Here is the input.
Amino acid sequence: MKTVLERIVIDAYGPFSQLSVSLDDGLSVLFGPNEAGKSTTLAFVRGVLFGFPRRGAPGAFDGGAAAPQSGELHLRSGRRRLIARRVARSRRAEGELTVLDELRAPLPEAVLWEALGHVSEPLFRQVFAFTLDELNALAVLDDESQVAQALFAVGMQGARRLPEATAALDREREAIWGARARNRPLNQLLKELEGLRMELAALDGQPERLGADVAQKVALDTRLRALELELERAEQTLAEAEGLVRAEPHVRALRELVRAAPAGLGNGPEAPAEAEG
Here is the structure.
């Protein structure tokens, strides 16, 4: 289910006041000469969603407006219409966000983030970059960029949380194999296993002892089998991780296809809805 921006309403932001811009269902293009307000309008959209920058701060579009920065975005998500409204306050420069339905009744903020696919501000900045610094940064995104993972997830039914799963796998891999990992479970397991094998070898080379020694050997054998099972599970987890690593070239190829696609990809056909359990 895709979400479409239908209207931008600027009460006061930069050089604009009491401005309303309606957008078509298809591709919409903002064009005009330098200083016409194209970047200001895009900054307003970002500001409503994630907070306005302080006046005078880098990336702020003040324009000398005396009124507090405020305005709203009208969105359509499936059959539902939402209004995201933000008004800057004297003590909260970023402003306070209010989510409303089409009758302007209050809604939880979670409804808005669900409609936006829980997109983070860094990911939003990467996908909808418009300043020179942001556009230059897009040229040097590495292969593990959030953009590549998010676009890959969008193209797969039921894979909306793929970036989260990938991040969790990376953390687990770092905990086991990372150079700075304090606890390396697999290495500790192998060390303990080797120690038990040495103890068993020492017991096997001695004459029969008392029942206590036999009981100790049985206990060590039991612990050894348990450790071998743990090692087998750890190796299986490692094999799964290596399989994901081998899949990276395919993800890179998909990202190149997405980069080569025409602009306005976000207004294409809706992705299939997730099946209800």
Notes: The longest strand covers residues 3-13. The mean pLDDT is 76.
